[in-house]
Amino acid sequence: MANERTVPLLPCRSIDEIADFYRALGFTQIYYQTRPNPYVSMKREDLQLDFFGMPGFEPADSYGTCVVAVPDTGLLFAAFAEGMRAAYGKLLVSGIPRITRPRKRKNSDDVSGFSVIDPGGNWIRIFADSAGPSQPEPAPGTLAAALRNAVVQGDSRGEHVQAARILDTALRREQDTTPRADLVEALTYRAELALRADDPAHARELIVRARELAVSDAEREALDDLAGALPA
Question: 142 and 232: one domain?
Fold first, then answer.
């Protein structure tokens, strides 16, 4: 049989809170009920996510998750980020809800992916539906390899403390010899991890260091998003 369709059904504390969040990301509410049980359906083009409300549910304890394969993770991230900035005044990079940036995942054959952690604590894991060109890329340098390991811990498993340890060790050893682009990417991600760990002072220091090296618009945009998340 072909043309099957799967719709994830995920838990949340409040279907209204969930609906508001996903509307900010460009979704439309296509179904809503409060009785006999709270239930809402959100859809954005061909992507549909359904949610059921649970009184007393704690988002931080949620195991809700799903994988979404898309043609272009960068394009979808940009759309989500634009909506999030418009609705919240900044990109949400720490706490619940939040979004991670597209990064290659060592535990997914280096396919680029990012995650949306919604107000229900659900991890919507978005990956490219193919790994791209078949030609192998050059082996990453030591810091770049450490960054990919850190991303597995921080962005795939939510273990930001372990991810920070991996990066701190690599930065101490490699920061004076690593390529500039790799260093900027590592410092930027380390600043994001500092924000998740509620350490804005360290995040600010890392952002300043990375800005001194950043040259591309994408690098500056990522750093601007992190700076916007710092407390006043």
Answer: yes
